[in-house]
Design a protein that fits this description.
By secondary structure, the protein is of the alpha/beta class. The protein has 2 domains: about 190 residues, FAD/NAD(P)-binding domain (3-Layer(bba) Sandwich), CATH 3.50.50; about 210 residues, FAD/NAD(P)-binding domain, CATH 3.50.50.100. About 30% of the residues lie in helices and about 20% in strands. The strands form 7 sheets. It has a 7-stranded mixed beta sheet with strand order 7-6-5-2-1-8-20.
Length: about 500
């Protein structure tokens, strides 16, 4: 067996000098920490300089032009879905690796839908990101932009109990699409960021559900005063737009159909208050607004007209001095530009959004476009700022994908390559209408093209059926359509899951 032992020793020696395989989309400028010769046992290896990290450099001749997309909202995802990956490499930078189907997000807060039913992975929306050698997704934030150099500065997202130090890198682009969305508006009211929960992301819905079920269980503990029970089970929603109304409707339906049956000891304490400075659903038809007010009041939602002045840990203070105690506070008062959008060295539209022209280009810089809630028409176009709606963002993403595909086919995909391209059909938005659910098989459908225009306006069970059918068809993948349909069916038969996990 001596020959067998010798063979094992030779194989082990061969493995010890094999170079490690480096497979990474970024370019490393120094790899000297890897050596083909093992260091002698009696010698201490010399300290090696740190690896220099340079990111993604400019595309080379023979490579496809690179489109960098900032954001994974409605606009950015619809753009990536429509881009021709035979023409472009696609690089997406975002702090989340999925798209949220926001119209159904309120349903996840009370267990009508599972959270995965409203989240679509980016790799399913644009498969090239997962399989093409020049296309990537980076879980990172954009922290800066140098449009003259065609560079995006990024920083990795880290969180957890022991977060890693953020890693900074740069990406060169041939075409850049800014689809950073917007942030919830707090109007500078003190305490909102610390004590309120927004409803724009899946983790927001998870936190609302966790807080709601926790308060239900705490209120049932022996010795809790009636005053404290009333506070714990008082759910306050600030903002009477579609999101605030839909969440209030879902919550009231949850209370009527599930909580009162399974938490009989505290069923008389839980209630919902919706606070709005003006009229709820101000963009809807007057008849539909009155119907919504009647239905919400009938289902137990208390409507209060007022302006929030201050937010404390357990109560909010209105401008007339009224104090409203709460156990759960959900903030849904509209959106505005994020600090990053405000800091970008680009022209701005009225309201602080990134300014764009009729073709969604950012004026005065080359190869930069902006779509979605973070963009608005510059004053020279004479066009009004479009509302921050999913259908606006989706339509802009589809339009820009087609435009970039035409530019690429015409040979203008490279950086500064579209200077001579003749832009023809500008972006035109046509409003398709609005919908909102009120819970308890009631909804609103307003198909008017504008607030003062004429068109079909429906309310009641028929509208609820149209609402569900429309959104089921708009869910991006068949997988998630199946999840949503199954969730609706099981909720109808068995009720909502109120387990706290």
């Amino acid at each position: 067996m001596a020959w067998f032992r010798s063979l094992i020793q030779v194989s082990a020696a061969a493995r010890s000098v094999t170079k490690p395989r480096i497979s990474d989309p970024f370019s490393y400028t120094l790899l000297s920490r890897f050596s083909s010769e093992p260091a002698p046992i009696h010698e201490t290896p010399a300290p090696q300089p740190p690896i220099q990290y340079s990111g993604l450099g400019p595309t080379k001749p023979g490579e496809k032009p690179r489109v960098v997309v900032l954001g994974t909202g409605w606009a950015g995802c619809r753009l990536m879905k429509g881009l021709d990956t035979d023409i472009y490499d696609v690089v997406c930078v975002s702090p989340r690796n999925h798209m949220v189907f926001t119209p159904l997000l309120a349903s996840t807060c009370v267990g009508t839908l599972e959270f995965r039913s409203v989240a679509e992975p980016i790799g399913r929306i644009q498969p090239a990101i997962s399989r093409e050698p020049g296309s990537y997704f980076f879980l990172s934030n954009c922290v800066g932009l140098e449009p003259d150099k065609h560079l995006v500065q990024c920083e990795t997202v880290t969180d957890g109990a022991e977060p890693l130090k953020p890693w900074k890198f740069e990406i060169s682009y041939d075409k850049l699409v800014i689809a950073l969305g917007a942030k919830p508006t707090t109007f500078g009211i003190q305490g909102v960021e610390e004590h309120a929960i927004f409803l724009r992301e899946v983790y927001h819905a998870q936190e609302i559900r966790r807080k709601l079920l926790l308060n239900l269980m705490l209120s049932d503990v022996p010795g809790v005063s009636e005053e404290e029970k009333s506070r714990l089970l008082h759910c306050v929603v600030v903002g009477g737009g579609p999101t605030g109304v839909e969440f209030s409707g879902e919550l009231s339906d949850f209370i009527q159909r599930d909580v009162r049956q399974r938490y009989s000891h505290v069923k008389n304490y839980i209630h919902v208050t919706l606070i709005e400075a003006n009229e709820i659903l101000s963009s809807f038809d007057d008849r539909l607004r009155h119907y919504a007010t009647k239905q919400l009041t009938k289902s137990g939602v208390r409507l209060v007209r007022g302006i929030v002045k201050d937010v404390k840990a357990q109560k909010i203070i209105l401008n007339d001095g009224t104090e409203v105690p709460y156990g759960l506070l959900v903030w849904s008062t509209g959106v505005g530009p994020s600090p990053l959008v405000n800091s970008l060295p680009l022209s701005k539209a009225p309201g602080g959004r990134v300014g764009v022209d009729e073709w969604l280009r950012v004026p005065s810089v080359q190869d930069v476009y902006s779509i979605g809630d973070c963009s608005g028409f510059v004053e020279s176009t004479g066009k009004p700022t479009l509302p921050a709606l999913a259908q606006v963002a989706e339509r802009q993403g589809k339009y820009l994908a087609n435009l970039l595909n035409k530019i690429g086919k015409a040979g203008g995909g490279r950086a500064n390559g579209a200077k001579e391209y003749k832009y023809e059909d500008p972006f035109v938005y046509k409003h398709l209408g609005s919908m909102a659910t009120l819970g308890r098989y009631k909804a609103l459908v307003d198909l008017r093209q504008s607030k003062d225009g004429k068109g079909l306006a429906l309310a009641g069970f028929t509208s609820w059926f149209i609402w569900r059918s429309a959104y089921l068809t708009r869910v991006l993948s068949w997988r998630n359509r199946f999840y949503v349909a199954i969730n609706w069916a099981t909720t109808f038969v068995f009720g909502r899951d109120i387990t706290r996990i």
